[in-house]
Amino acid sequence: MDYCGETRRSMLGYYALSIMASNMIALVPGSIASVLYPKMLERYGTVGNPLALCGLFAGPMRAMAALMSVLIGCSVLLLPFLIRFFLPKYVPSISLLNILLIAAFFIPFLLFQEISSCLLTDRTTC
Predict the structure, then answer these.
(1) What angle do CA 17, 22, 28 make, to 5 degrees?
(2) CA 27 to CA 20: how far, in whole Å?
(3) Residue 78 contacts by C-beta under 8 Å, 6 or more apart in sequence?
(4) Higher pLDDT, 6 or 1
(5) 3-state class of 65 per DSSP?
(6) What is the mean pLDDT of the chain?
(7) DSSP state of 121
(8) What is the 3-state secondary structure of 70-99?
(9) Which of 33, 66, 95, 125 has its CA at 20 to 30 Å from residue 112's CA atom?
(10) Distance (Å, rounded) from C-alpha 108 to C-alpha 98?
(11) Is residue 123 within 8 Å of residue 47, measured between CB atoms?
(12) What confidence tens digit (pLDDT) does each residue in 94-112 have?
């Protein structure tokens, strides 16, 4: 095999491991957003005022920021040790893993931004 092909395959494995770990973290805000979205639609449908949704945005966003900080912090500290112990061939993926895990902190904000933009614009496009 050529060196370039082998390098590409190993890099693909490093990225796959990092993306799997960040996707596991992303399940938490996605689950919470899918629970809150119908409640937001119900409140918006009854009141008709987007400002009435502030209670459904502020509290969950604070809780999500705290929860994601703890989850990501534990993951950044714990996963490198687990990778070194159980998956020593994937040690080069640790730096990429840390970058993607820290970036996963912003996923809840994107989900809630998408929900709010759907509520504030024409509902037929969402």
Answers:
(1) 140
(2) 11
(3) none
(4) 6
(5) helix
(6) 81
(7) S
(8) HHHHHHHHHHHHHHHHHCHHHHHHHHHHHH
(9) 95
(10) 18
(11) no
(12) 999 999 999 888 877 776 6
Model pLDDT for residues 51-95, shown as the tens digit of each residue = 777 777 778 888 888 998 999 999 999 999 999 999 998 999 999
Question: CA 8 to CA 74: how far, in whole Å?
Answer: 30
> What's the pTM?
0.74
What are 40's two structure tokens? 């937001």
Burial of 105 (0-12, 13-18, 19+ CB in 10 A): middle
Inter-residue contact 26 to 109 (CB < 8 Å)? no
The Cα 65–Cα 62 span in angstroms is: 5
Nearest to 56 by CA among 67, 41, 71, 68: 41
Contact 40, 90 (CB under 8 A): no
Altogether, the residues listed in the chain come to a count of 126
Report the alpha-carbon distance of residue 29 to residue 32 in Å, rounded: 5
